[in-house]
Amino acid sequence: MKRNAEPEPFWKRKTLEEMTRKEWESLCDGCAKCCLVKLEDEDTLEISFTNAICKLLDCESCRCTDYPNRARRVPDCVPLTPEVIQEVSWMPPSCAYRLVAEGKDLPSWHPLVSGETESVHRAGMSVRGKVVSEDEIDFDDICDYIVQWPKEIAE
Questions:
Q1: Contact (CB, 8 A) for 66 and 56
Q2: Where do the domains of the chain lie?
Q3: Greatest CA separation found in the chain?
């Protein structure tokens, strides 16, 4: 007798719009790259990432310290929705929301694939150990904080 094949994971079966709240939240790999201060060139619209991070981010856990109230406390915080993912150009290429929206699979280090929340950090794909809080820098010097690593993708 043949065993039934395991169903495909939800991120392969569903669009972002079809996901439950729990599925949507679990899709976040915890890298916190979306919380990096980003700069946009007015002429080219090119996005540059900095290693300055939102003041609400816990740099060790890579989690927001006030997730439910983040948009109220940080006026330029953009809560992610399926619509936002389709509209913004600043999501890092390794972002699971972006990957799923583009019809791509999750990388092996993603916690939903590896089964371990620390895998994103072990793969070097999170901001852990690479950032400084925006409260600790002079914003006039923000260009000195531009980095390339958020654009990297590791499998």
A1: yes
A2: 19-151
A3: 69
Structure token digits, residue 141: 């010097």
Contact 73, 84 (CB under 8 A): no
The DSSP line for 122-154 is HTT-SSTTT-EEGGGS-GGGGGGGEESGGG---
DSSP per-residue string spanning 35-57: GEEEEE-TTT--EEEEEEE-TTE
The residue among 84, 118, 111 whose CA lies nearest residue 26 is 111
151, 143 contact by CB (below 8 A): no
Q: Write the pLDDT tens digit of every residue in 91-105.
A: 999 999 999 999 999
Q: What's the alpha-carbon Rg for the chain, to the nearest Å?
A: 17
- pTM score, whole prediction: 0.88
